[in-house]
Amino acid sequence: MNKIYNPTADSWASILERPTKTVNDIEGTVKEIFAAIQKDGDLAVAKYTTQFDGVSFENIEVTTAEIEAAIASLPADLKDAIALAKANVETFHKVQQTTRVSVETVEGVQCWQEKRPIQKVGLYIPGGTAPLFSTVLMLAVPAKIAGCKEIVLCSPPDKQGNINPAILYAANLCGVTKIIKVGGIQAIAGMTFGTNSIPKVYKIFGPGNQYVTVAKQLATQFGVAIDMPAGPSELLMVADDTAVPAFVASDLLSQAEHGTDSQVILVSTSKSMMDAVENEIQSQLEVLPRKAIAEKAIANSKLIFVENDEIALDLINEYGPEHFIVCTANNDFYVDNIENAGSVFIGNYTPESAGDYASGTNHTLPTNGYAKNYSGVNLDSFMKSMTFQKISEKGIQNIGKAIEIMAEAEGLQAHKNAVTLRLAEIKKRK
Amino acid sequence: MNKIYNPTADSWASILERPTKTVNDIEGTVKEIFAAIQKDGDLAVAKYTTQFDGVSFENIEVTTAEIEAAIASLPADLKDAIALAKANVETFHKVQQTTRVSVETVEGVQCWQEKRPIQKVGLYIPGGTAPLFSTVLMLAVPAKIAGCKEIVLCSPPDKQGNINPAILYAANLCGVTKIIKVGGIQAIAGMTFGTNSIPKVYKIFGPGNQYVTVAKQLATQFGVAIDMPAGPSELLMVADDTAVPAFVASDLLSQAEHGTDSQVILVSTSKSMMDAVENEIQSQLEVLPRKAIAEKAIANSKLIFVENDEIALDLINEYGPEHFIVCTANNDFYVDNIENAGSVFIGNYTPESAGDYASGTNHTLPTNGYAKNYSGVNLDSFMKSMTFQKISEKGIQNIGKAIEIMAEAEGLQAHKNAVTLRLAEIKKRK
């Protein structure tokens, strides 16, 4: 752990720097796979599945029988836990529903804004050691509430050609319309171009490794939208003497176990709290199954002492953390003034893992400083807003002159004509 | 004009195909300029301004004296027109303001969502023949309402080193905090990296030519967000015998004058309306100052006859027009069922130019089929939504068990520990 005391503001940028990743060496591979799948469709998908996942099989769409087997295999207590989490995620995303916003800007000029669902969305769920069924909830629940017609889920098969039953269970529960056993770059390429087995979608959501991240970036060059650019997960916590060192340590460690590149930062106005947390981390770390991973992330972590809450806040806003936990005597100050953060966790009994699983907020959040310019996934992520306007004869008479003058000043005569013709016709009739 | 009668659904994709542009040849230039400006800052900016705009000068920030001169030079009727347009854009974007959305998902678990402004935004306004001061209103007004702290505007200088006074006037009126005389790739690169003269921003908005479009795409690889990918402007109009041929023709032409690559499509259930519109276009075209441009766009335009409104709607949703004008006996059917469109104009007295200038809706809209997955610029474009959660002892007791089970099933023991520790501490105390 790196302890830093009272860093000057001009050193913040270097202290808070995230590890930069070069994607150039990956880009070639990603482009090659995209080109192959655009050209050869399912044939190319099968080839890369064999190559990367070490398995080959005929039907890549998950069958009803497979889903039924997954449902039967899952322990009851896990089903109950998923049900509770799903209910909370539903509750929180349903209250985000908005109604049409309408206003008569001037007499006779009615304007309104409505959100309508993105019709076809694709959800990517990584495979590997941790089967992220919680991410299925976080993406499929709002997609369903938004009213997306087609909800496609892609996840890589294991060596036996199966997807983890908890992922299948959650996908089925949340109304995913099609589950495809395909992972990595080939999944993103498949949803970008469409193949016989994989539907083409309009927007792709979900986490993934570096390959998936680069593939999602490339997908945007082919007309597909993505939820947000991804980076390693990160947590910044601010804690003073009102915090509980053991709790603080447990939160920092729960972030650290994600990956060796996870970012863990503690900001504190108390040196003794910093020391106590450091000790707690060492003892809690010992018993973790993912100790090897967490240890590396913790080695790169930073404990930063600052003199007061104002300085802490400025530093935190400069960083823009994905997850931001606040445990201080002054929580409202942070909550009211935080400008850049993905999700904020307030108080001693609000661990980050609550938001990861079951509080109801979404865990798909902007990392890598993107909290400065991107929202986390929310209901609106699955919709687009459209505007409407309906102008009466009276209305065009009210704004027509202004349009004519502005169009002429911009040198767009035909724009002006469209109004002039209408005004003349109204005048002639009257 | 290409008249197409009753096209079969399997031919829609090719009929509705937009001209594809290859950006590969531009990409090299854009990357080179980005690298130079990242390295040499203002020095490189000056070099490219000389090269591309044919002008060089010391101070690239617009001064108060220049703004005052612009204010003095602008005709009163244009100022009045801008004032009216600004008021309507303000009215429409102010009603889009939302309050915090809050819910207790289960007892003791309070979750809420708040939108906070993106602190630093950059607005790009093209130069050239048409000084798009209307776009200044469309971007700066919502940025101001959102509460963005820094609103930077870049626009290329003319041969005398000036920006069009109407652009300066509108920028000053709308609260732009800094106006910089820089255009094209160098403007986008400048706002991406920041230079001594050009502030680094978090999100870049605004239209531009192919170079600007590719530069904005590249900017996203350096952590900057953009409003949306751009493409040539387009209009699809559906009209039956209740429409006025002269009005329809004037709307199609106002789209056509934007550029030779503008997309203009008329869908109709009336063959006689199609013929009448064709004649009207010919006669109105003759007197247009931008006839040469409009003529080329019109030559590529399509008039498509279909049997009924249902088929028309399917075809329109497949296309996803940026601008969609509806003039039929059945307007509500289209308005209620349109799934993909940027902005919708309803009835005989609602020309597209109303939305371009003064109705109040935003004219920065998704083109190129992006209406399927992107919103047009709106108030939320200048904000990001953040989530918050505050859990009480009771709350963590209510959801703790579910978190423990899910975290364990995902193999994330430290996530589980963060809850277990808290539950144990509560139990011990009680």
TrEMBL record, chains A, B:
Q: Where does NAD(+) bind?
A: 124, 186, 209
> Quick one: which residues bind substrate?
233, 255, 258, 323, 356, 410, 415
Q: Which reaction does it catalyse?
A: L-histidinol + 2 NAD(+) + H2O = L-histidine + 2 NADH + 3 H(+)
Q: What is its EC number?
A: 1.1.1.23
The name of this protein is: Histidinol dehydrogenase
This protein's gene is called: hisD
Q: What does this protein's record comment on cofactor binding?
A: Binds 1 zinc ion per subunit.
Q: Which organism is it from?
A: Flavobacterium pokkalii
What pathway does the UniProt record associate with this protein?
A: Amino-acid biosynthesis; L-histidine biosynthesis; L-histidine from 5-phospho-alpha-D-ribose 1-diphosphate: step 9/9
Superkingdom, taxonomy of origin = Bacteria
Which residues are listed for Zn(2+) binding in this entry? 255, 258, 356, 415
The active site lies at: 322 (proton acceptor), 323 (proton acceptor)
Purpose: Catalyzes the sequential NAD-dependent oxidations of L-histidinol to L-histidinaldehyde and then to L-histidine.
> Hey, which family's this protein in?
Belongs to the histidinol dehydrogenase family.
Q: Which cofactors does this protein require?
A: Zn(2+)
Which lineage do the record's taxonomy fields give for this organism? Bacteria, Pseudomonadati, Bacteroidota, Flavobacteriia, Flavobacteriales
What UniProt keywords are attached to this protein's entry? Amino-acid biosynthesis, Histidine biosynthesis, Metal-binding, NAD, Oxidoreductase, Zinc
Q: Would I find DNA damage among this entry's keywords?
A: no
